[in-house]
Amino acid sequence: MMRVLSCAWDKSLKQFMIYRATGWLTFLLAIIFYAIEYVTGYVYFSSNTSVNGWDRTDYLVLVTGISVMVSAYNFIFILGHEELSELIVDGGLDSLLLKPLDPYWSVMLVGFDMPSLIELVVTTAVFIYLLQNYTLGIIKVFMIIWALIMGVMMIFLLNRICICFNFWLAKASSLGGVIEDLTSMLSRPKVFFPTIIQLVFTFVVPVLTVTNMPVEIIKGDGSVKELVYFSIACVALYYLSRYEWNQGMKNYYSAN
Q1: Spatial separation of the C-alpha atoms in residues 171 and 163, rounded to whole Å
Q2: How many CB atoms sit inside 10 A of residue 55's CB?
Q3: 210 neighbors 134 (Cβ within 8 angstroms)
Q4: Structural domain boundaries enclosing 199
Q5: By the number of CB atoms within 10 A of the CB, which of 123, 216, 224, 248 ranks highest?
Q6: Looking at the 3D structure of the chain, how many domains does it have?
Q7: pTM above 0.85, yes or no
């Protein structure tokens, strides 16, 4: 497995160097969108303004944490998911099924998105800088790190569930971007949304949990119990996505 990962890394790095102008442009656009969200915090809040218990720093940590999670997802998983969607629709999964690796995961080894890695480094540095405005114990630090990791996995699993609808619906490819769009739309404090939106996107499609959990932990609104429930939800979604994958493979038709 380590040799496969090493090969995927080398391939991705070489591709980035070949298409470095495109890669740097992709990184620049991502940073511009993040900067817009960051500046928005200064528009929403003045230095002494608090809205529903949220101040400017809380908001900046929120949007930066989301950028960390999305860039981590894009770096590790986005190329594999784009490839998976095409392989299902085109009937080209055979090459994966013949490999001595679990095809559920092996599709992720097609490569890494290097511009997203650069974005991840930048946004992580900003996130750490913003955390200096809070007094955090070691337990809270570990809780925040775990919430970020679980957030990345939740984005991965929700995307995988959407993509695997391609096994049954030929025109379901567009669903691959739904979770990213929802994450962007819901990149605001949970309390800013109507109650019905909070309920749906916390307990049905837990995108608001992903976006808000790190800041809720920092503010003291997120407990260990809630983080455990979040982790259990990730495990449940994993088994749901595995079940969908297994059923989809029964419905898969090869182009060969």
Answers
A1: 11
A2: 17
A3: no
A4: 2-250
A5: 123
A6: 1
A7: yes
